[in-house]
Every structure is written in structure tokens, then in C-alpha cells.
Amino acid sequence: MWTYQHKNFKVHQIPALNDNYIYLIEDCHADTVLVVDPALASLVIEACAQLHLKPTHIINTHHHWDHTDGNKELVQTYNCEVIANQDDAARIPCLSHPIPADSSFVLGNLRIQSINVPGHTLGHIAYVIDDALFCGDTLFGGGCGRLFEGTHAQMWESLQKLAALPDATRFYCAHEYTLPNLRFARDMDADNPVLKQRIKDDTQTRMKQQPTIPSSIGLEKKTNPFLRPLDAAFIQAYNQTNQTQFNALETFTDLRQRKNKW
Ligand code: ZN
Ligand code: FE
Questions:
Q1: pLDDT by residue (tens digit) across 212-226?
Q2: Which of 29, 127, 145, 182 could form a disulfide with 120 if both were Cys (CB 3.0 to 4.6 A apart)?
Q3: Total number of domains constituting the chain
Q4: Is the pTM for the entire model greater than 0.90?
Q5: Residues whose beta carbons lie less than 5 angstroms from ion ligand 1
């Protein structure tokens, strides 16, 4: 488990299953404790016992089992509330507080903003608390989620919303996929010096068995191939290499389709 200090809260990162991360958000000025995307209840219960925390709420980004399987047991154990997108009411176990996809609410001393980010699933939402972003399977370190339900246009729009957050925003995604993602990135963006440095840094980090997450929005904009179409110079180079005349959405779409076969 790793802990990150923000101004008004701490984030505890719990590795789960093969490559999932579950997060505990501990309000420093109230008893509020949020569990983000509990893949598994037992690991959360263990971590909470160690930290002397009692979860008050679960917040789910989307309905997939590796983000919601712990809901039921955690509700039984802690009698906590479950917050998720109202559009996914039928698919989120034990949902008690359905919210609109784009909404803002306060828990304890934490102001939480949800952002509608369809693409990986249609009901996928992300949560922003101050300078922290919890984005489930939408944006990954060096990558983005697969399109199970949404269109490329929806996902591209969703990613642009996340890219519009301040560069210093630390983002906590739900999987450690960064190194394999960066190998694909290197193939698509070979001359990018920031990417080369990131591959070195993140390889070192993983060799020490540390997480590459959280990353920052600023770093992703410079190195994540699925955000690189925000840069006109990248699109131009991509078109030149591939003998195409793609716009930003078409470039994103082409990259996402290549990644599926890569
Ligand atoms: Zn998922
Ligand atoms: Fe997942």
C-alpha cells in the first residue's frame, strides 16, 4: 500500500488482483472515508483495519466487475453508502446514491465533482477532488481504456475533458498498464524526448516494484499517444508517416484501432 498526501485528504493506493488499484480517500478534517472502485472487499477491509479507517462511502466509476465486486461485502461490513452514475443504476451492486453523470456534491470536507466520460462504457464517470482525478478505465498511464460500449468520438471527447484539467492534476486510474502502454507509445511517437525519458523513469519504478500511478495530466499530454492528437504537430507528423490526412478524431481513432491489434 502507498499513501499520497493532498492538501485536505490522503489517498491510499491498494494493489488488487493482477493489475488493479483500489483507492481509499481519507478526509483529513472529517470522518469521511471513500473507497474508489473496490475490486475486492477483503483487501479494503485489511487496509482499513491497518489504517484505523471506517469507509463511509464507495464511489464507482463504472459497472465492470473489477470495479464493483467489493461493493456488497463492504456495505455489509461498514454500512456505507454507494455512489455511482444514475444511468447505471441497474448495473451497480448496492447503489444507494445515484448521481447525474455531471454533478457536484460535498462529503465531509471534500467537494467532489463527477464528469461524464463515456467510451469504455456508456455510463463511465470520473471524479475530481481538488487536484486529484479518479478516472477508472478511461485514461491510463500512457494509454486509454478499450471501447466496449461507446464510440471513438465519445471517447475522444471524454479524454479531452480530462486533458483540460490543470497540468498538475494527479490522476489515479484503476490499472497498472503503464509500461506495456508506453511500448506502444514508443512505436507511434519514436522521436518524442519526453516519452523516452518517461520510459526510462517508469521502467526503473517498476523494477523497484513501485506504482507508476499516480501520473499527472501534464505528463500524459506530452507522452500518452491517445492525448497526443491534441498537438497539431503530432497529427502532421502522423499523417506524414502514414500517408494520411487525418484530423484529431481520426488520428485518435486510428491509434485506438492499431492498439487493439498491436
Ligand atoms: Zn472497465
Ligand atoms: Fe477495469
A1: 999 999 999 999 999
A2: 145
A3: 1
A4: yes
A5: 64, 137
